[in-house]
Amino acid sequence: MTDFSLLGEAAYVVFYILYFSLIFSIALVIILDNRNPVKTMAWILVLFFLPVVGLVFYFFFGRSTRKERLISRKGYSRLRKRPMAEFQAQLSLPVSKDQHILMGFFRRTCNALTFEGNALAIHTDGASMLLDLIREVSKARHHIHLEFYIFENDATGRLLRDILIDKAREGVKIRVLYDDVGCWKVDRAFYEQMLFEGIDAQSFLKVRFPQFTSKVNYRNHRKIVVIDGKVGFIGGMNIADRYIKGTSWGPWRDTHVKLSGKAVYGLQTAFLTDWYVVDRTLLTGEVFYPKMREKGTVVAQIVTSDPVGEWREMMQGIMMAISSARKYFYVQTPYLLPTEQILTALQTAALAGIDVRIMIPKKADTWLTHKGSFSYLDMLMKAGVRIYLYRKGFLHSKLMVSDDRWSTVGSTNMDFRSFEHNFEANAFFYDKETALALKNIFLEDQKKCMFLVPKMWAARSWSNRFTESVVRLLAPLL
């Protein structure tokens, strides 16, 4: 019995030596990877204070695959340029020094062309967006391209699927791209029925063992629709019942836009580039970029960001936009977990006397990220940022507007995941009319908010403060 006891103790000691050797080795790899110091410290804390669980989390979500070239930088950059080469004859708006600094920045970092003469329709609820989408889909004659993070097998998803099947039977070519992780809970038979009916439906970066750990952290969060290359949709809404019916605590408030005009070329390029990633078929040609007359007066630029390239385009662009604000900067976001650069830019703008307002939901769909969001409010309010908590349901809108000069709507949240890990897409608008329209939407939503008074916020319980602070340590990983 004594021999077995000694053997058990020896095995116990060997296990801990091996385990902590592995932990130290991984910590060394993280340090040598020269990541953001905040993220580095967060992972080291997770590894040391959450034994085994921390190790599993690291292998699933922590490993940097950029150097492994999940999608090669040069290849992805080349992909974004090649479809554009097919329609260079369609003149984009030349970028001059007199125009907004963001135009030139996005043109140089992610090849985003700016187009004038667009028409815009703004949707602030899922029902109106879905009806408009169905209306435009029913008019399709050549192709329909849909890309969503979530495409659920529920009443809303089945309704759109059945309409797409009808169009496929009419001879319209339909391509559907959905995120593999975002649609984990969706029965594969739902998409197989589309395939059976001639719809080409594919998932983005399939997550399967043993490749699971290298792909699960990099998700396609974009929401893009292109119909016949002439009409497009972009924003924060997915295809699911909750975007129409809302949550148990109220309506689902979101923002989505329909674009008509040459800016749709940017949406088409984003879709076709992502399509190549999954299908290895590069679709180019005039049929995807038809010549169009001016539809309106809106100047628009479709901006995409990804975890593949050298720059964090969306984060850097937003940081520049905050720094360029002269009168006001308004933000709606469901998740507020800003990087250090964005946090500093918001504080600096407020300290300079800029009217900085941030609107987040009072109650959110994810407890962990919501607690993390609350941990940033003290620092922001001390600098003079005005915080509004949306009370009438769940605010999922990703909207920014500044100085009556520019505005943006898209899929990008103001958090680490959107800025560093996700494939995102936003439409940026450089005209007063659109800025005023989105500003008015923000101000109308503000009436449904609770304005957060610093003294009131400081009076919250110690347990809430402690929970928020602990979750904040994990903010770079959420």
How is this fold's topology laid out?
Elements: H1 2-32, H2 37-49, H3 53-62, H4 73-85, H5 101-110, E1 114-123, H6 126-138, E2 143-148, H7 155-169, E3 173-179, H8 188-196, E4 200-204, H9 212-215, E5 224-227, E6 231-235, H10 242-245, E7 252-253, E8 256-260, H11 264-279, E9 298-305, H12 313-324, E10 328-332, E11 336-337, H13 340-351, E12 355-361, H14 367-374, H15 377-382, E13 386-390, E14 394-395, E15 399-402, E16 406-410, E17 414-415, H16 416-421, E18 424-429, H17 432-446, E19 449-451, H18 454-458, H19 462-473
Helix pairs in contact: 1-2, 2-3, 4-11, 5-12, 12-13, 14-19
Subcellular location: Cell membrane
Organism: Phocaeicola barnesiae
Function: Catalyzes the reversible phosphatidyl group transfer from one phosphatidylglycerol molecule to another to form cardiolipin (CL) (diphosphatidylglycerol) and glycerol.
